[in-house]
Amino acid sequence: MLWLYLHFPSLQLDSLYQTDNALPVAIVHGRKSDVVQRNENAKKSGIKIGMGLGSAAALCPDLQVLAYDEKQETAKLTHIAQWLYLVTADISLYPPNGLLLRVSHMLSLYQGLDNYWQVLTKHLQRLNLRYEYGCGYSPYAAKLLAMSASNQLNDNKQQIDNLLGSMPLQVTDLTKKVVNHLGRVGVQSIGDLLRLPLTDIAKRFDIELVTYIGRLTGQLRHPVDFYHPPETFKHYLELMFEISNLQYLQKPLFKVFHLLEQFLRFRDKHAGQLNIELHLRDSESVHFQVHSAEGEYQAKRWLNLSQLTLESIKVSAPVIAITVEAMQIRGNDFRVMDMFSKHCGAISANELVSRLQAKLGKGRVQGVTQVDDHRPELSTIPCPPLQKHSTIKPTKTSATVLQPSFILPQPLPVQEKMNIQHGPERIVAGWWDKHPVTRDYFIARNSKGQWLWIFRTSGQSWFVHGLFS
C-alpha cells in the first residue's frame, strides 16, 4: 500500500494575509519564546528556526512577531483537506500541519503516480502554501521521509528502504529512553534497527517497539481515520496589520470569498447568507450578515454586497482578523432567460433586493401582500420581498373599484377646492374589531391637475387618502 505524506512547515505563516511582502515576519512559540516559522526576508536577516526571540529581535529590529496558534493551523489543515478531497479520496489529518494520503487506490484513476502527482500539485498551487512530501509503503515511512524534507516521489520499494535506512533514530516517534537503549547496543539508524530480527527485539524491548517496526515496514496494519468533509464553509483569516478604515477590508475579504467561490462551484451550490465576524483589538467582535435573495457563489458579487453593508458599520477598535461563514447553502436553481431579449444582462429582481438589503439592512426592504379587508389602510401588510402569497380573489364589485397605487400613511384633511370626477363608493367595515369606518370615496382633481382619492365621513368631514400616478 503506497502512501504520501504532506508536511506544511510554515502553515500559520502562509495563512496570513500580507500586502507588504518586504516585511520580515516570524512566528514564535509562546512557551519557549523561540522562532518556529519565518518568512524569506526574516531568513535573509539571519533568523533561524529555533532561535530565541531576543536574539531574533537583535538581528532584525523591524521584525514582525506573531504568537504560534495551533488551533489556527489545525483549522487551516482542515481547509486544505477539504480542498484536496476534490481530487483525491483517502485523506487523513495529522494535526497541526500534516496530511496523509493513500495513493494506491488513486493510481488506476490517474493512470500512474506521475499523473496523480501532477494533478495534486496543480491543485495545491492555488492555495499558495509551502510543503514538503515523501512517499512510503507505510504511513510511518511516508511521514518520516516528508518530515526530513526528502521531497521524493517514488514507488520503488528498494530506494525508499535505502532512504529510510540512512535516517537516525532521533527523527522517529520512538521515546528518548528507547533511542538511548538502542544506542547502547550499537543501533544508531533505522537501517540498523531493521536489520535486527524481530524475535531478538521482542526479547529485550517492550511490545511498543515491535509494533512500531511492524507498522514502519508495513508488516502490521496501521489504523488510519480518513477525513470526510462537511458541507459547510467557515474560514478564519488573520491580518498582518490592523485596519481601522473598513474600506480597506476589500482585499482580505475577497481572498476569503475566492475560497468560498471554489468551495461552492465544485459542489454546484450557492449560499444565501454570509455571517461575517470582525475581530477587533482589545474589544468585542462585530458581527453582521450579508444576504443574497437569489443565492450567490461568485466572489466579486459577495464583495459588492459586503461593501454596501460595511458602509453602515462602525468599529470601536482596529480589525485584526476576519471570519466568514456560509449559511443557507443549497443547490443551484438556474434562471431561464431569453438570449435575444433586450433586457438580457440587466440585474434580476432578486439581485436588486440583495443590493437594497445590503445597503439599507434586511429589515428595511419588504414586500407587500394583500389581505381580505376593505379598509384601505388595512388591506395590505408587509411581507418578505418577492415572496409569493396566496392572493385574494377580487369580487365583481371590488374589481371595478378604482384605487390609487399610493396610499397616505394617515389621511390628510382637504384644504383646497376640488372637482369631483367619480364617486361615491361607500365602504362600511371594521365593526368586528372595534375600529368601524363609514366612508364615501371619490376621485377628485385639484387646481394643480393632481388626481386624488378622497373620502367623506359620516360627520361630513373630507380627507385625502391617496394619490393616483
Automatic annotation (TrEMBL):
Q: Which SUPFAM superfamilies match?
A: DNA/RNA polymerases
Query: Which of UniProt's keywords are assigned here?
Result: DNA damage
What GO biological process term is on the record, naming one? DNA repair
Task: Tell me which residues make up the UmuC domain.
Answer: 23-145
CDD domains recorded = PolY_like (cd03468)
Keyword Chloroplast found? no
Family statement: Belongs to the DNA polymerase type-Y family.
Q: What name is this protein filed under?
A: DNA polymerase Y family protein
